[in-house]
Design a protein that fits this description.
about 525 residues; mainly alpha; five-stranded mixed sheet
């Protein structure tokens, strides 16, 4: 049975008696907001005591009127509060603070109404909750819509200013039109992010015949094992690197008592090192067929999350399923998960840069250009801190290069220098991080076209047919000619590294262990990588 229109007469009378007091209740609610919510304390007194109190009073008047008539407010009646929510967005008041004033005002109205005789408390609470449920979502929607519009305006301003400066056009008038003040000097940071990879299902099983090895790229000099199935009956060769001239082990059956791929007998119970069938129940250490349901993984226990068949990731130098040490550098626990789509990365970059209003940015797919105003903080520290923030926002570690522009007229040249440095760092396979001209001065000079660069690159031409020797020289240089570290990075024995260094000397005529020759080989390695990437 429907209720008759309008609240009961005692309730209407009590609510009508509260109308003269809405100004008092509004002032109390705003004062409480200013005392409890920091965002309101920074507003000018004219806004707090004028607009905000007047707006709160109007909302209380609307609530009392609609509650007395036992109805919800109409869209037309809610238009002013909704517009005020958008105004608070333009004032920079957080959404939480905008919405919090409504329950505070409702509390003030409740305390005043509950003291009136003849008021049904349950009916009043029902009307109050219905009113709040109607007005607060609309205010929040208007606030977010206005905030989004303001964010895009700021981003467009940031983009247009950056584009003007990068093109060498005057930007002061554009800055004044958008209410910005441009710094005289900037640090230009050009950065690129790796392409985000689509997430893979953790429970997915490889197809029959597919490799179950880890997707991690091998270290320098490590052989690349193929995941393609072999023809029926073909021997499955081990993926472990062998020393030059060593026989390759195969899965062909051997006489009893000898391990596959070797002529030496072994004692009973020795583990099989190839894909030969093992005794029932024995763990399979390679691609050997096992009993139904047995996992084709290393016999060593692995921690949860280790991909089947790889034995990795392990601690540095730990043994994997193939018996070879691997260099595994797990990411720190604080590393965020990388975003899985370019759109998500683009949005995360914009959202993070919104926290740095002084930084101008021209973003594009997979990277962009940042113009950081030079200030009191050390430039390198400020640049690195911002890049760390971008990494935290996207989960992707970027490769970047920076150059300084002392005036606006220097910005195009600084941009060209930073872009050239970034391209050079990528061609030289430098790790992610921030690079400056001082870091790549020798490489930058060698990158300039000319007969000297070609002559240096031809020094390593005899190694072109021996990619493992090129990888060995590259790792040896990256480790500062430290043999132990280089052997560890290559997952080979020190004797293997020594043998390869000797082969490099024989083929090139330059001794990697001699100070004069290693300088030439280092320059030749840089020139070779630059020439190869340009092919």
């Amino acid at each position: 049975m429907e209720e008759p229109p309008g609240a009961p007469p005692p309730v209407r009378a009590a609510l009508a008696a509260l109308l003269p007091r809405t100004g008092e209740m509004a002032a109390a609610a705003v004062a409480q907001c200013a005392a409890e919510i920091p965002a309101y304390r920074v507003l000018p007194a004219g806004v707090l005591e004028g607009d905000l109190v007047a707006n709160t009073k109007a909302v209380l008047d609307l609530f009392l009127a609609t509650a007395a008539e036992d109805r919800l407010p109409t869209a037309q009646e809610l238009a002013p509060p909704v517009a005020w929510g958008a105004e608070r967005a333009r004032d920079g008041v957080p959404l939480q603070a905008v919405l919090q004033i409504y329950p505070l005002g409702a509390r003030a109205a409740w305390l005043a109404a509950a003291a009136e005789p003849g008021v049904d408390a349950r009916l009043l609470v029902t009307r109050m909750l219905g009113f709040l449920a109607e007005v607060m979502p609309r205010v929040a929607e208007a606030y977010l819509r206005e905030r989004q519009h303001l964010d895009w305006e700021q981003r467009e301003d940031r983009q247009s200013l950056a584009a003007a400066l990068l093109a060498g056009r005057p930007a002061h008038r554009i800055a004044e039109r958008h209410g910005r003040t441009l710094a005289d000097s900037h640090d230009l940071v050009v950065f690129r992010l790796p392409r985000p990879s689509a997430p893979t299902g953790s429970g997915a099983q490889p197809a029959s015949g597919a490799s179950t090895a880890s997707n991690a790229p091998p270290g320098p000099g490590a052989p690349a094992t193929s995941s393609a199935p072999t023809r029926p009956g073909a021997p499955a060769t081990s993926s472990a690197p062998t020393r030059p001239g060593a026989p390759a082990t195969s899965s062909a059956p051997t006489r009893p008592g000898t391990p596959p791929g070797s002529g030496a007998p072994t004692r009973p119970g020795s583990p099989a090192t190839s894909s030969a069938p093992t005794r029932p129940g024995a763990p399979a250490t390679s691609g050997a067929p096992t009993r139904p349901g047995a996992p084709a993984t290393s016999s060593a226990p692995t921690r949860p999350g280790t991909p089947p068949g790889s034995g990795a990731p392990t601690a540095t130098g730990a043994s994997t399923g193939s018996g070879n040490p691997t260099v595994s550098t797990p990411p720190p626990l604080s590393t965020p998960p990388p975003l899985s789509s370019p759109t998500a990365v683009f949005r995360a970059l914009h959202a993070e840069l919104d926290c740095y209003p002084g930084v101008l940015a021209a973003l594009e797919d997979g990277g962009g250009v940042l113009l950081l105003p030079l200030g009191d903080e050390v430039t390198e520290v400020a640049d690195a801190r911002l890049l760390d923030r971008l990494h935290a926002a996207t989960g992707l570690r970027c490769t970047a290069a920076a150059a300084t522009a002392r005036t606006h007229a220097d910005i195009p040249a600084a941009h060209a220098e930073a872009l050239e440095l970034l391209t050079l760092a990528e061609r030289l396979r430098r790790p992610p991080g921030l690079h400056r001209l001082a870091d790549l001065a020798v490489e930058y000079q060698l990158a300039q076209p000319g007969p000297a660069r070609g002559a240096l690159a031809r020094t390593l031409e005899p190694l072109r047919e021996h990619p493992h020797l090129l990888d060995t020289l590259r790792a040896y240089l990256a480790c500062g000619q430290h043999r132990g570290q280089a052997a560890h990075a290559l997952t080979v024995h020190r004797n293997t590294l020594t043998y390869r260094l000797g082969r490099i000397q024989v083929l090139t005529g330059h001794d990697p262990t001699h100070p004069d020759d290693i300088r030439r080989l280092a320059a030749a390695m840089t020139a070779y990588d630059i020439e190869s990437s340009a092919e």
